[in-house]
Amino acid sequence: MSKKALSILMRARMRPNSNSNHSVSPLSLTNAVKQMQRHRNSREGQSAGGASREENSASIGSGSSEREFMHVRASMDSAVSMNKTEFLDDALNNFSEGYFSFSHENRRKLLLLLAREYDLNRSQVRELIKQYLALELPADKAQVSEEEGLFASFYRIERNLRHALKPVYEVLFERLNTHPGGLRFLSILRADILCILTEENIASLRALDSYLHEKLSTWLSPATLELHQITWDDPASLLEKIVAYEAVHPISNLLDLKRRLGIGRRCFGYLHPAIPGEPLIFIEVALLKNIAHSIQDVLEDSPPIPESETTCALFYSISSTQPGLAGINLGKFLIKRVITLVKREMPHISTFATLSPIPGFMQWLLSKLACQKRLAEGEMSQTLTEGSNLTFYEKILKPEEEEALMSLPKDLAMGQTGMETMFNLLTSTSYKWIHSSELVSVLKSPLMHLCARYILQEKKRGKALDSVANFHLQNGAMVERINWMADRSENGLSQSAGIMVNYVYRLGHIEEYAHSYFSNGEIHASSDLHHYVEQSDKKQ
Amino acid sequence: MSKKALSILMRARMRPNSNSNHSVSPLSLTNAVKQMQRHRNSREGQSAGGASREENSASIGSGSSEREFMHVRASMDSAVSMNKTEFLDDALNNFSEGYFSFSHENRRKLLLLLAREYDLNRSQVRELIKQYLALELPADKAQVSEEEGLFASFYRIERNLRHALKPVYEVLFERLNTHPGGLRFLSILRADILCILTEENIASLRALDSYLHEKLSTWLSPATLELHQITWDDPASLLEKIVAYEAVHPISNLLDLKRRLGIGRRCFGYLHPAIPGEPLIFIEVALLKNIAHSIQDVLEDSPPIPESETTCALFYSISSTQPGLAGINLGKFLIKRVITLVKREMPHISTFATLSPIPGFMQWLLSKLACQKRLAEGEMSQTLTEGSNLTFYEKILKPEEEEALMSLPKDLAMGQTGMETMFNLLTSTSYKWIHSSELVSVLKSPLMHLCARYILQEKKRGKALDSVANFHLQNGAMVERINWMADRSENGLSQSAGIMVNYVYRLGHIEEYAHSYFSNGEIHASSDLHHYVEQSDKKQ
User: Fold this and answer.
1) Pure H helices in A59-143
2) ipTM of this model?
3) What span is annotated as the signal peptide, if there is one (chains A, B) (predicted)?
């Protein structure tokens, strides 16, 4: 099969468009206020509908853009309010096509309008609430029939209230979900909403997002997702998605892609029937003799080991393709199903492990170091007058690490304390520390033990602070090993000083580990990992 | 492919089990009251939980049945309350298997328990409602930020209220929907609920049914249904379903089934991915030269016409297989999709028609005749003192029909009026009127014109009173012809005095007709049909 199109594509690498560069004009904010006022007015049954509509139109800007906006807005309104199927498909098509052709600013305006003018009929909700509060719970000794009658009133008003509390945009979402291409469109709508929310935190839009998120979670339940092995025989239109969306270790050229689908490699994706030819999430697997220590070993391993000699399936990359599905855990069952599939096809594989990034390590470490530095400065200047700061002050380095850092020649490292020196080294431009063997050897010990601490002990609401750690732990993995200089790419250095981690899925223990992590935050780890942390605990 | 199993099956015809014969013990009603009381107690935070539970168990009856009930109840509770996936599948399996093994009485008890003890946390709903009422809508001239803040409170409480108003059993439904076999199980649960509701009208169970109905409607949207042509090459396990569920014209033997899938015939079904091998609804089609006048012509047409000579596709039977999906319009898009498919494969087919039963005609006619008879008697005894009755009195026969009925010899027919005579003839045992050519010729005129009136003019809430008429009219069909002696089976005689109707789907007018029927109840009909009604209108 010729992959000409793909090859062309590879030269000009495709990435999903980011709209976040567009600026938001202050004009639109004024409109937003007017819209909200009009919205409120219409809800309250006051006049001003016609007048404010014109006023609003007039402030939009150029006439043709305004007409275009009004046209799409009208098709959206039809798609919501139409009662019969006859023109509904047309309305939905017009709406989605019009929306796709919109500028970022018009999309923003339309989404705000949807969020504000298509939410609830609040006066209806209040009316029902009053009826509800007027009901009294039946007395203890009432007759069955009376009791049934009273409960019937509860059920009736609760049902009506349930319906009244559904925003009007629910109809649009439901209709799009069953319309060809609609689910994909909804995912794009949500990506736009999330993008706008990073610019401005608008309550109505947040409510729209949260509602759409819930809906999408229901529609994309694991039962609706099909596990598909992606191979070189798949259509170029699907493979280009893999190239475009590989988020962990970018695919550099056509040969690289072919290798990732060839001997000793597997790639699996979840497809949804309503979004054909485009996996929502995919996972890349390498078949190896042992658990790899570095991503270079995986990506550059050439020629590959004959598959019959392999014993380890290494998950080295998981990427989701739809920014609009953020917050929906599609990977939850993917790993389990891939393990089952690989185990069935290749019984000689006995180890299922990952080679994973630690995306939050450096961010956590640097803020920790900066914070301690500030506390230390405060301590010195105020000479213990504010003892409270001391409780937050923590020597995060072992004495010998502190010593080694402080005894570095001054041309290599500057700092009043070991922590300050470390902070300065790690934030130096172009990661120049990794080019000095002396610096590397001095930094290795503190970075490794602090990394183990970060993964095993730093938590938020009882869950691992690191998002990838949390993902694998809640899937039932254990922490097996952390690897020094495992990802020397710029991305790897900036995320985790080049450290990577192997999580291992131990067959027969997956459910147990997932359960203990879920119920009391317990993180299973190898003795190696515990060793890093215990050593430093003892020394402190 | 050998159809041995099917052949065996045909001898002992399978029908879906009806549970409606089981009696309901008065004991269970007492339990129901106790349960409701316990329910209320626990909601109100009072004690008595443990005590009433024992008391309740004690009254159930035999120990082993009680243990069995408690076991399934416990698995249902786990299926609702379990937070992790690890044992959820087991709990769902235990619950559904246990439920299947239950007697009608145990099913009834469990469903009532589900309806009453797993609905809402009403005190939480009340708490949120109080918070909601405390909010005030923002004043007109408020600042954007304040306004946003206020709206944020609305959105937050509305969202919480939405969640609080979801019954606890929603979780069970959602989980079953994504569990293998769960959707089918839910359809059986609903069939049982509907069956119990025909025995007793229990408010909590009605609420459960209405909630499940809504859920099923969403999950079974046309987008999730796959159109499948059913052929003799399909597995016997699927074909046995066709035999079992054919509701309109029962399949009499294996040869009959083979003919309905052979030359000149088509059968299409809607399948749902979660209920494999079992169409939810299926439609049988005959390819003919002209629109058939009688079902005998269709079922006994042998040998069939060569398909290349046919011009008409006749839909002669539509059956749904799941009593638990009652009220969910699965056929809505089926006919449209079948028409598109047939037209594409056989461009020589230009007419799409049905040969349909008129299930409500005789019931309507007999109650009309009985009512007029009672009114006439009242009129005579009270000699016009109560004139109000007169407004309901109506001469539904034409003068010449009245005359012909009254001049029948007394050994053939008895009655003081034509209507009474007609009533007596139509309700005589074994439909003996159809064996007398004299009676048949006298009855034909009034039955045909009243049938046309019933289909075209008798409505309920603006829709055709007859359910099959309403089904085809809302799908966009028109009424083409009514056929005398078109179904001489006992079923056909009891439903509609043997009359059947041809609805025609006119390509290019389907959407238009559906719309005008939907928006103002307009029924499109041929001039023949109108003729029947106009004649009688003039004469009155």
Assistant:
1) 63-81, 88-101, 104-117, 122-134
2) 0.71
3) none
